[in-house]
Amino acid sequence: MNTCKVAVAVDDSDGDHRWMSIHKRFVAESREKDADVVFVGDSIVQALQHTEVWNELFAPLHCLNFGIHRDKIENVLWRIQNGELDHASPKVIVLHVGTNNHANTPEEIAEGIMEIISTIREKHHDVYIVVPTLLPRGQHPNKLRERMESVNELLKSKLVNLPKVELVVIDKGFVQSDGTISHHDMHDYLLLTNAGSRKAFEPVHELLLQLLSEGEPEKDLTPSE
C-alpha cells in the first residue's frame, strides 16, 4: 500500500501537541486573512517564511505560509482534508512536499503529490496549483538526492496535461561540478539560506506575478493631458 496516499496526522511523540496547534492556527488564519496565494508543505516552505526573500518577493503578494517542519506527504494531505484550505479563497496554491518521505519509492511519492493535487482541486475548482520541483539534498551525492531527481522526472510527465497546474523547476544550480552542494546555498545541506532561497524561488515568484495578473484590467499608461 502506498502510505503517501493515506492521510495521517503527526503522532505527538514529543508530548507537546505542537503539530496540531500549528494546524489549528493555519485553519484560523485561513478564516481571518484574505490571501491571494497559499504556500502549503514541509520545512522548505516553512523556512522560506523566515528569509529576506519572503519579505521582499512574497509578502507583498498577500501570501500565507502553511509549511510545517518535517511534514511528509501524508501529513500535508491530512491537513488539507481537515480544514486548512476550506475557508480560504486563494488564486494560487503553491505545493512543495515529498523530501521527507524517505521510506517511499519515487513512484509512491509522485502518486502522493498527485493525490494532494486532486484533493486541492476538489475544494478549489478554479485555483492555480503551482508545484516547485523537489530540491537536491546532502553535501555529497546520495540515494535520497537520486530519489528526488526521479520524482521530479515523474512529475514532469504526470502534470504536463493537467489544467491550471504548473510545475516550476527550482532544483537547478545547486549541485556543483564536483557533485557537492555548498553551505552557502543550503546551510545544513537541506534547508535554504537566503541566497539559496532566492535562487530557488525567484522562478516561482515570476510565475505568481503572471498568474495573479491574469484577468486583471490593463492599466492605461497614456499620459493625461
From TrEMBL:
Pfam families: Lipase_GDSL_2. Transmembrane segments: none annotated. InterPro entries: SGNH_hydro. Residues 39-198 form the SGNH hydrolase-type esterase domain. CDD domains: PAF_acetylesterase_like. This is SGNH hydrolase-type esterase domain-containing protein. It comes from Tenebrio molitor. The lineage of its organism: Eukaryota, Metazoa, Ecdysozoa, Arthropoda, Hexapoda.
